[in-house]
Amino acid sequence: MKIFDESAAAAARSRQAELTKPPGSLGRLEELAIFMAGWQGRERPKIDRAQALVFAGNHGVTAQGVNPFPVEVTAQMVANFRNGGAAINQLCRAAGADLSVIPLELDRPTADFTQGMAMEVADLVTAIQTGKDAVDPEADVIILGEMGIGNSTVAAALAAATFGGTAEDWVGPGTGADDRIFANKIRAVNAGLKRHKGAATAASILGSFGGREQAAICGAVIRSRELGIPLILDGFICSAAAGVLLVNDANALDHCLIGHESAEPGHRRLIAVMKKSPVVTLDMRLGEGSGAAVALLILRAALECHNGMATFAEAGIG
Amino acid sequence: MKIFDESAAAAARSRQAELTKPPGSLGRLEELAIFMAGWQGRERPKIDRAQALVFAGNHGVTAQGVNPFPVEVTAQMVANFRNGGAAINQLCRAAGADLSVIPLELDRPTADFTQGMAMEVADLVTAIQTGKDAVDPEADVIILGEMGIGNSTVAAALAAATFGGTAEDWVGPGTGADDRIFANKIRAVNAGLKRHKGAATAASILGSFGGREQAAICGAVIRSRELGIPLILDGFICSAAAGVLLVNDANALDHCLIGHESAEPGHRRLIAVMKKSPVVTLDMRLGEGSGAAVALLILRAALECHNGMATFAEAGIG
């Protein structure tokens, strides 16, 4: 496993102190450049290839009336991604990321987690492997996103199972729940937590609640960690999925940034327990990797400054 | 004077409601697209030409020991801007903005505002006109920035004179004040506020405290307002300069965004009294227009989504 290169990070930190600006005055942009330097193992990190992976899945828990949209919308949105019509297409173009959309057996939803395990072990393994295989070892940075009708309910269950708390702590409006749907979400998550209260490992939590896209996100996070490729998580659903890995390994997400703080209320709580700081907060709550793609714009800007600025000595200042 | 086109904004708002995403789920990106639509007077706003204007000036108040850097650094940084070595050069390249750097009589600093008026009327008029003349009428959006050793002290004085409060409310570390310099800043601002307490119009406040780059910023804001060109202000110094215009006209900054919330502590207070919301918060405190340039990245992303996404009808969803 490739580890964070402290000496490259230190060299990048020294460089930042020599650039033509008051020390620290680029704030988060400096931190991002140093983070990238450490993970890429070079004083001057680069983004020649940014890979965007969007995983899509369907969820049996939609039988509990947890989403205003029919499950068919997942496949329709996958088609929209492929036709270039979704937000993530525009944002990947703006941020210079190559988008891959990976639907996971959309016509075979995971089972309803209020009634039993969401996934058999074989399905879980397959989904994780799909996520691992999707990672391009040549990528300089990876951004992750997801699509799946009902998956904010799955995310709330995963967050509660991983970090504790009640359904009320983690359930939010998602794509736009009215009072009745919101109550159904709470009821479904509480039922799931009761049924699966013994789940104590990342695999058992994922198997209990699903879904395939969450498992694939974990696979991509695991593989990029092995390769030392820095990664940007998106919002609530993506963060809850990756957060499951912290059950097994407190350092599993050291290479991950959280791109944005979603307007989905549970995300702020999730970011806090994950001890992360979002790059931007723009009241977005779309998923698809949209917040991660916006964060990639900031990350590129950080590297432009880091690599392109003159030092005080070069500029003859001081 | 061109005004905000409510019907273009309404058309943009309708379009946002039809794009393939839950309504409102792009958050601030939707608001930015609608803002641009209203000011540009078209349902689908564009940014073919983004103009970045960075004004530089020197300040007599540096005689009060308000900055750790010598005044020569202003001219040295202007040379650095022209050689492409500063943060703003990299950020303008990343954000697709054409940078113009406009030094204002750097070898003739404004007078020390603790001792008298910073500027004669003729100097003030010239500086405002320079700002007006710098605006390209063909620009689709303008971003503003500044450079001037000592100008965070000027900004604190302008903010206090415009919005009330004490020196302590507005003075911050700036480029990196130690305790002694910080105390000098407080003392200078208090002395200036006492001396110029009768200043009650935008012109008298600007003339009292300076500086030329602040006056030029006001000129650019006035001219872009006349032309209806949306504009992104940078951090504390840029916001304090433009804020002076609110004394004369409560709508003077309706066409302005504040690009970022600076780490300079007074900026948060300033943004609140100006009733604005920053686009990003990245703990930056550099000036030069750096935060405005980062915000331009977000603005472009917002328009990419607005103009490039498919509607539900186009995508055959729902």
From TrEMBL, chains A, B:
Function summary: Catalyzes the synthesis of alpha-ribazole-5'-phosphate from nicotinate mononucleotide (NAMN) and 5,6-dimethylbenzimidazole (DMB).
Active site annotation, chain numbering: 288 (proton acceptor)
GO molecular function annotations of the record: nicotinate-nucleotide-dimethylbenzimidazole phosphoribosyltransferase activity
GO biological process, one term: cobalamin biosynthetic process
Protein name: Nicotinate-nucleotide--dimethylbenzimidazole phosphoribosyltransferase
Enzyme class per UniProt: transferase
Catalytic activity: 5,6-dimethylbenzimidazole + nicotinate beta-D-ribonucleotide = alpha-ribazole 5'-phosphate + nicotinate + H(+)
Keywords on record: Cobalamin biosynthesis, Glycosyltransferase, Transferase
EC number: 2.4.2.21
Organism of this sequence: Paracoccus aestuariivivens
InterPro entries, sorted: Nict_dMeBzImd_PRibTrfase, Nict_dMeBzImd_PRibTrfase_bact, Nict_dMeBzImd_PRibTrfase_N, Nict_dMeBzImd_PRibTrfase_sf
The protein's annotated pathway: Nucleoside biosynthesis; alpha-ribazole biosynthesis; alpha-ribazole from 5,6-dimethylbenzimidazole: step 1/2
Top-level taxon: Bacteria
Family: Belongs to the CobT family.
SUPFAM superfamilies documented for this protein: Nicotinate mononucleotide:5,6-dimethylbenzimidazole phosphoribosyltransferase (CobT)
Pfam families: DBI_PRT (PF02277)
Gene: cobT
